[in-house]
Amino acid sequence: MSVADASSSAQLITDDVTNWTLSTPRAVQDVTGVGKSANERILLLADISVTLNGTFDDASNMSHAVFSTVTSTSVARAVILTPTTDSAHLPFNSLFTDYQLTRAATGELTWQVPGVLSDGTVPTWA
To answer: From CA 126, how far away is CA 110, in angstroms rounded?
Structure first.
């Protein structure tokens, strides 16, 4: 997994990410006429949202360096999500909306970063 930092430089943060959630919903419009007995719908715009979770790593070009600027910059960041070791991947541009840090009572320092599609480009698996 790579995520661009605030200066648009892709950073490989795979080893910091422990899990992620991805959603690729499509909006729908109800176009049911009064003469129908069931709903009719058409597909509208595509979207994507992602939540990345990981362990705090303040080494150069790792997760903290990438996400610590979420609170102070308003830039879209290129994301390349590769869920397996084969070549399938999902590139998209995301606006990350928060950089949440959690310090557990047992000492773990973890983060969570939610993101949404930024540029109107349909997310497409490659």
So the answer is: 30
